[in-house]
Amino acid sequence: MKSFDLSLYLVLDPDLCAGIGMVETARRAVAGGATMVQLRDKHAGTAGMIETGRALKQALDGTGARLVVNDDVEAAITIGADGLHIGQEDMDAATARAMIGPDMILGLSVETAALAAAVDPDLVDYTGVGPVFATPTKADHKQPIGFDGLAKLVAVSPVPSVAIGGLKAEHVAEVFAAGASGLAVVSAICGMPDPEAATRRIAAEIRKARA
Ligand SMILES: Cc1ncc(COP(=O)(O)OP(=O)(O)O)c(N)n1
Ligand SMILES: Cc1nc(C(=O)O)sc1CCOP(=O)(O)O
Ligand SMILES: [Mg+2]
C-alpha cells in the first residue's frame, strides 16, 4: 500500500531557491511541515538531477516527507526517489509506470476535466491540477482554471488531487473546499526569506481548513 500525504507539497525551483539552495530549502520546508518535495529543474540534465536528488534524498531521509522527481524517469529511478511527476507533454502514464514499477508514486498533471476523467487509477496515484492562477514561475502554463475549475477537475479525478499555480497561504481554505487533498507551491516557500516560517504558516492554515 502506497502511503503519501499531498497536503503541503513543495516544488523546488533552482532560481527561486538560489539564496540557500534547493536542498537547504527542502530541509527547512520539511521542518516547517512540508509533506512532499519535488525536484524540478528544467535545465539540470539527468546527471545534475541525480546529484541534487541524492542530496535531497539524504536530507529527507527519516523525515517522512516523500521525494518526487519531475519529468526525468532515469533520475527518479537512479536516485531511488519515492515518486515521479509527469505532465501531458512528457511520456505517457503507461510507459512511465512500466519503467518505474508498481511501487513508486506516479503523479500526472491534468489541466481539463476531460484529462482528469481519463486518468487510469491503476497507473496514476495522484493528479496535479492547475494552474489555479496565472504564475510567473511556469512560463508555459495553461489557461488558469480558478477555484471553480479546480472543483470540477477534482470531482472527476479518480485519484487524489493536488492543486497548483499561484497558491499562497491565504488560498488554503478554498483549495480544500474545492475537494483537493493539498496544494503544491513553489514561490510561496522557495522565494521567501524564511522558508521554514513560510511553510509553518501554510501548515497552520491546512490544520484550520481540516478542522
Ligand atoms: C504537483 C505538480 N503538478 C503539476 C506539475 C506540472 O507538470 P508539467 O505539466 O509536466 O510541467 P513541468 O513542471 O514539467 O514544467 C508539476 N510539476 N507538479
Ligand atoms: C510547476 C507548475 N506547474 C503548474 C501547472 O499549472 O501545472 S503551475 C507551476 C508553478 C507553480 O509555481 P508557484 O507556486 O510559484 O505559482
Ligand atoms: Mg513535466
Structure keywords:
TIM Barrel; 40% helix; binds the ligand Cc1ncc(COP(=O)(O)OP(=O)(O)O)c(N)n1; binds the ligand Cc1nc(C(=O)O)sc1CCOP(=O)(O)O; binds magnesium ion; EC 2.5.1.3; magnesium ion binding
Summarize the structure.
With 211 residues, the chain is α/β, with parallel strands linked by helices. 40% of the residues lie in helices and 17% in strands. It has an eight-stranded parallel beta barrel with strand order 1-2-3-4-5-6-7-8, surrounded by six helices.
Structural account:
The chain is of the alpha/beta class and about 210 residues long. Helix content is about 40%, strand content about 15%. The protein has helices spanning about 20-30, 45-60, 75-80, 95-100, 115, 145-155, 170-175, 185-190, 195-210, and strands at about 10, 35-40, 65-70, 85, 105-110, 125-130, 160-165, 180-185. It has an 8-stranded parallel β-barrel, surrounded by 6 helices. Strand 6, helix 6 (about 145-155) and strand 7 (about 160-165) form a beta-alpha-beta unit. Helix 1 packs parallel to helix 2, helix 1 runs parallel beside helix 9 and helix 2 packs parallel to helix 3 (about 75-80). The ligand Cc1nc(C(=O)O)sc1CCOP(=O)(O)O binds near residues 11, 166, 167 and 186.
